[in-house]
Amino acid sequence: MAERGQLPPPAKRLCCRPGYGSGCRPGQRAGGAGGPGSGALCAGPSSAAAAAALGLLPLGKTQSPESLLDIAARKVAEKWPFQRVEERFERIPEPVQRRIVYWSFPRSEREICMYSSFNTGAEDSAVAPAAPGGSTASTASTATADTAADENRLPFRRGIALLDGGCVDNVLQVGFHLSGTVTEPAMQSEPETVCNVAISFDRCKITSVTCSCGNKDIFYCAHVVALSLYRIRKPDQVKLHLPISETLFQMNRDQLQKFVQYLITVHHTEVLPTAQKLADEILSQNSEINQVHGAPDPTAGASIDDENCWHLDEEQVQEQVKLFLSQGGYHGSGKQLNLLFAKVREMLKMRDSNGARMLTLITEQFMADPRLSLWRQQGTAMTDKYRQLWDELGALWMCIVLNPHCKVEQKASWLKQLKKWNSVDVCPWEDGNHGNELPNLTNALPQGSNANQDSSNRPHRTVFTRAIEACDLHWQDSHLQHIISSDLYTNYCYHDDTENSLFDSHGWPLWHEHVPTACARVDALRSHGYPREALRLAIAIVNTLRRQQQKQLEMFRAQKKELLHKGVTSVTNLEGWVGHPLDPIGTLFSSLMEACRVDDESFHGFSDFTENMGQCKSLEYQHLPAHKFLEEGESYLTLAVEVALIGLGQQRIMPDGLYAQEKVCRNEEQLISKLQEIELDDTLVKIFRKQAVFLLEAGPYSGLGEIIHRESVPMHTFAKYLFTSLLPHDAELAYKTALRAMRLLVLESTAPSGDMSRPHHIASVVPNRYPRWFTLSHIESQQCELASTMLTAAKGDVRRLETVLESIQKNIHSSSHIFKLAQDAFKIATLMDSLPDITLLKVSLELGLQVMRMTLSTLNWRRREMVRWLVTCATEVGVYALDSIMQSWFTLFTPTEATSIVATTVMSNSTIVRLHLDCHQQEKLAGSARTLALQCAMKDPQNCALSALTLCEKDHIAFETAYQIVLDAATTGMSYTQLFTIARYMEHRGYPMRAYKLATLAMAHLNLSYNQDTHPAINDVLWACALSHSLGKNELAAIIPLVVKSVKCATVLSDILRRCTLTTPGMVGLHGRRNSGKLMSLDKAPLRQLLDATIGAYINTTHSRLTHISPRHYSEFIEFLSKARETFLMAHDGHIQFTQFIDNLKQIYKGKKKLMMLVRERFG
Hints:
Layout: E1 14-15, E2 40-41, H1 47-53, H2 68-79, H3 82-88, H4 94-103, H5 109-114, H6 145-153, H7 155-164, E3 168-174, E4 177-184, E5 193-202, E6 205-211, H8 222-233, E7 239-241, H9 244-249, H10 253-266, H11 268-283, E8 295-296, H12 314-326, H13 333-349, H14 354-367, H15 370-378, H16 384-401, H17 408-422, H18 465-470, H19 478-485, H20 515-527, H21 531-566, H22 584-595, H23 601-604, H24 609-612, H25 636-649, H26 658-676, H27 682-697, H28 716-726, H29 731-741, H30 762-765, H31 776-793, H32 798-811, H33 815-829, H34 838-855, H35 863-877, H36 879-887, H37 895-906, H38 909-915, H39 919-939, H40 941-951, H41 956-970, H42 976-988, H43 992-1003, H44 1018-1031, H45 1033-1046, H46 1050-1062, H47 1087-1107, H48 1114-1128, H49 1134-1148, H50 1153-1163
Parallel strand pairs: 3-7
Antiparallel strand pairs: 1-8, 2-7, 3-4, 4-5, 5-6
Helix pairs in contact: 2-4, 7-8, 10-11, 12-13, 12-14, 13-14, 13-16, 14-16, 16-20, 19-21, 20-21, 20-22, 21-22, 21-25, 22-25, 25-27, 27-29, 28-29, 28-31, 31-33, 32-34, 33-34, 34-35, 35-36, 35-37, 36-39, 37-39, 37-40, 39-40, 39-41, 40-41, 40-42, 42-43, 43-44, 44-45, 44-46, 45-47, 46-47, 47-48, 48-49, ...
């Protein structure tokens, strides 16, 4: 952590002989038992007493009483800089100096651990950042092998290993300076190394460290740790000398010269140039060194002006933070930054001034992050994890400025710095991307004529705004001081029952303040190492909230009829406590849970942390003896649970902006997950019952009240937790709560808009904006989860299932979520280990039908899946359900779905087998399917005709009807592709004449141009001609004019022509009889017409191609002419026609010399 491998910084203290100028220290030559320059062991007069003071002796072991000298020296060593001691007393006996020097070294390993590892063991071993505004709340976990390995790599752990391995040697304490060597054992790839370590200390704090290992890090290296722990654990083995200046004062001139010469001789290569330079300056009368009295002594301790704080390598802190930020959240950098924040909290809890110092360094690097200006220019939001880091930064500054014992000048300095950061353009806003319209810390409600001023004129609230506002808060209020300082502060004669009374009806103290601000005080007390004070204030706040809750309930009951009649949705809280930047509910919950945690060192004192460090304990919570200000039977645990329920049930408006909305959801889920770790007993169940009843009856004060504001944060996630918790104990209340929470008014156009006449109405703060709920999909999924949980629990209960179904149909507006619920109900109803629950199956079917109706006229990529599932569900319900959906198909399905999926599935063998249908039932179902098919074919013949024909095959009348529908639609509404498909089906089914009829109708819709020689309809045309040819000369003669009219592509026509000349028409008749007729003549109709059309198509195509031909297509064109010649030669005068055709080409296109040359070469 220090400037390892460098020389220690020069001492600030200047030491000199007595009587030498005004800078002399009086009484330096005081005699002592040690004699001049003599060393002594650190333990002093009573090693046992010293060991006992260090906590090294076990309890119950006999100890000698500590001497008055040691008691006094220890107190002086803790509080006074040594220079003040020297100036205060004329003579300081050498034994007294030795005891002060002895006691000035840190005596606790806790700080050493704090400055050499991310975790001291006193905190939760999973060091994670607290939710904004709250310290880290422990979560039960078991240490893994990876965690143990990481712990062992920490400098503190490695330092202990080096100490235990006997690697520390040559330990020497000279005044306030400790030195020694630490041997790093040889590893597989590295030889043994010896590190020289030097430590300076003052008033029980290490003020600087140097080590030759050369490693650079924020924390002390393992070698510094090993030497420090050696001094703490083995003080009697450390040789102690007074500051070196004391020894030098006792030498005469010859001794001093001998001392200097020996020193230069031993280290001549290192110090000779420096020694000569100093000698020259001393011998120079006007040199700077001769203008001051005395000389620096690095072992003489601190001067009066020196700040007393632990050594913190500021440069390394800045470099590490800069590195983590530059990695943009990759390589675990976010975790490292969170660990640094946790380290700041740890320092604050130890009341170490470096906490604020370290946070200042971190903040400066955050503000210098180049991504801030980039994101601002691009208008893009920062990543969620990065945004959370900024939140923690703001929350930490809030804790720092609320330090109850910070000095006025220190707070003024922080305020100046915070305002400087706050004024920077790129400083992140408190709510992510939007200006915050919420009140500030000291005003919970808007006041005066400016209460509703245009939000666009207000300055944006940044992550530092709350800390800046908190600088105006103080701790001087006498009522507040009494609350936090005493468990006995009561007033049983107090009868003021007003809203802001100082005591409740029990005489217990209350604290009326803007709730997030009051909770910020609790967090500040906890963060600065005042857990008992934080607990007292937390209890007062919770008692105040409970009293307010009761008052609100009484107020609503008194005005219920009037308020409900007006549809009032107003609440007194303009900002939600869950998801708030200061996390007030999380703070209260964590404070109370810490107080009831079994074996909690951080609350009841610190012990054995070196043994426990890194060991993850499973957390147990118990009802500890009741506090004075709790009801009978209550405990910190019940109080924590109750305040969490109060906060989660508060009616609150959904904030603006994606980040703020995500934070509401995230904090709610975090708080619920902590509640789920607590095992409910009878006492806690009573709390749940009490709060559930209140939330249902508290009207506009509750998120579960009868009427809520349209943009109130939904209660689905919270209600699901309440439902599962209450269900085993009070099912009626559980269902009542969950059903009330099912609503999602923001999606309902008829939701109440609010009573604008009330001064504190939400609508006055959120003026008629169009709701932009960025988390709506998540909210709807939570609503769906709540409904699914109720469906699962209601299995077998007809009345409850009907109620839940009604709630789903009324409140859920997303087809995909209703479909999920339908599927969930189906799975629950058809579990393999039990008979199907027919009521739940009907619920599933009813939900499926609702999905069908909702998605019938809208696009939904899962529609086919939904239709198939519905048929499966109806099949499970029974044959009457299948018949019902086919009877009312037009309200549920498109004609295509009804025929291709529904009717087809119903008619399948698998459905018949699954339903165990007899012949009568089969026929009835088939009749419904055929009726459906015909209705669909009438409505959408293009897409349903073929399916209708297929479904009606076994019923002659229905089949004929379907065929007639096709014929009626063929001339107007059907495409040639659809007609060809049905025609081929007809041929396949043994109706060639009907196939021929449909083929001729299809040909009438077809149009193939000259260049469409790869058109997909070509195969259909060839098939139609082949079908006509097979039926006979008359059919072929009838279709050829249609072909000539529709097809202009020469290659297709020539292909048809060749096929027609290969065999006799009607070669295979309708009944398989072979015709013995002759081949058709090309000189007579209908083939003459086809031949002429083909030759004409070749001529037209040739001219079209020559218009835009390029040289690379010349060879292809010559091949095309060759095919054309084959067709020309099929006519009796074809040779003459082709020759004239070529001659015409040569004349018309004589400009294309190269092409015409190729034509002449091939065709003459």
